[in-house]
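User: what does the whole thing look like in 3D?
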Amino acid sequence: MMLGFLLAALLPGLYWDQGPKTADVVRQAGIDRVFVPAGQEGAWKTAGIDAQPFDASKFVKLPAPGVERRMNVAAATSMPWVNGNGWRINRDGRRQYYYDVRWRTAALAAAEAYVYGADAVVHPEPRDLTAFGQMLAFLKSVDQPALPVMANIAIIDDGSEETGEVLNLLSRRNLLYLIVRAPDTAYDLNVQIGTKDFPKDAALDPSAFATLVRQKLTDEKRLLRIYGSEVVLGKVNGDGQRLRVHLVNYGGGKVDGLRVRVRGTYQHGKLAAFGIKNPALADYEPADGATEFTIPEMGAYAVVDLEK
Amino acid sequence: MDRRTFLQATAAAPVALAASLHEDLPKYQIVSRYQPAAQPGMPGAYPGKVARVHAGKAIDEPSEKVDAPTVREMISQGMRALTGDADARDSWARFFNSADVVGIKVNCSGAPGIMSTPEVVGEIVRNLGVVGLKPNQIWIYERFQNQVASVHYDSFVPAGVHIWTAEHDRGSIAGYDPNTYVDVNFFGEEDTRSNMARVVTEHFTKIINVPNMKDHGAAGVTGCLKNIAYGSFSNVARSHSGFKTNTYSFIGTLASVEPLRSRTVLAIMDGLRGVWHGGPFSPSRKFRFYPKQMLFGTDPVSIDRLLLDVIDDKRKAEHATSVWDRSMAHIKSGRGYDNNPSVDRFVREPGHIEYASTLGLGVYEIDRIQVRKIEL
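Assistant: Here's the predicted 3D structure for the full assembly of 684 residues, as structure tokens:
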């Protein structure tokens, strides 16, 4: 296990192209800063909303987050395929990212960008403005100085498509990794494609490769396990005394009961869950070098803060 | 050794014994804080003993109308034959008293075509009332809400009897006990836990298992063992992938987990209807048949051993492949299985019943099973 440092979290921005006449709607959504089509920023400022011109050429466009069903592709079973961008952002956190998302996905995109610390702008379907604003308000309410990112696996990224797909699969299986420049024995497992333990040929099947990584790491050592959903991906930050577990639900609906296991014994835990009133952890069990708890219900995003 | 590790080691002992006989089996980790009863419900008070009651007028085949008075008599005679009592009330009182909270594990996976017959369940509830249980001490339970909703058990039992399902929305784990589970990785799936239903661990003192007589594409047949095992745990369909299943060892392993094993004290196999192909589902009557019988016992292995012959004999009579057939020549993906009794979806694992016997769940050898036959 190793701690890697994350810069302060950013809140995603809104790209809004519905014109300054919708300023009241934007304001009602709790949003006071927007990206707008070039040339409109003056009118928006007149309407009382801080606006900057949006230049798509400066942003890397990300696929819409969510899930799709691909029988017998994602795994041996019919588990859904999660379209998550955490691995892309992990790969290059210095870029600026842009989401152009369909209805009912803007809040998820905002949560994903926040969790992975992306400098991102979201262009929602107009009907999603309220949900996007609610997510921004939720993110502000849970935001705190970032703790170091925690990972089991140090992986050297050669920039290839194969390694990208491996990163994708590791993310999808909640095998927490950090991209490093050289092997580091402080981690539970070092992965460098093209070595004896991880031959290049093996990476041609990213799913099998992720399974190989999991076998070598062992489930017992994993910092994070999630039970009860195949569409919730996690990220963990911590400093030894405190742990913050981010959980992003890509499924589109609510998850009814999610069991989480983290490595380390933490006596206290607190849940915040987007869209859920009075959320509280259930069946909290710190024991045997691990802590387990149940999230009774969650929407697009939940965050759990643990303390020793 | 800490508490959890101790409990795991205790619970895993019989599995470890069986696994030593089958070294290629998946590695199961059982986590439970429950200790076995002095005499676990399975195989219970009557290992190797089964009462079989057949009644020609139990169900009218064309209409599938059940004759409730005949069902009442079948259950009375079956229970008396199992226990040796002259009065059925005494038979029921051997298992249940007014302090119990009883779960009735119905099977609704083939509903509304085939399920634990409401008239049978109603008669079981009535007998529990006779020995002093109030309606609110009785729970009819199953995993999936949409299946149970199609049966309308509430029309056959007194008000106050609970009708409970673990998963109102498919895949939800809210109805399961996070501290009682089997952890196993079959095919690299991420969620490696199957948790026991909360009502089993937290509410019930006893369980009555009410399976049907059905063929099963993966397990070979589905009877007592599969109904109580796959019907009381979450996340079990993961045991099948491609043409291979792990039903051979998973069913018995789940059934052996405490407190399920100790609390399941009685099995009443409802064979008024049966399914000889396509099970556990029964969307049409094409593969339905009518054994018109019920089996009574405490030993799930012995009852299921008899079930194997019922299903295999019927399949032979219909010129279908045997439940024992493991030839890949008959296995096809797609929907051919639904209409062709010579097509299988998986390599069937009827050996799961014998495997369960190696976990101490009952008597498998046919010549050691004592069957008391009653014809009405």
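In plain terms: The helical segments of chain A are 23-28, 41-46, 86-91, 106-115, 129-142, 161-172, 206-217. The longest helix of chain A spans residues 129-142.
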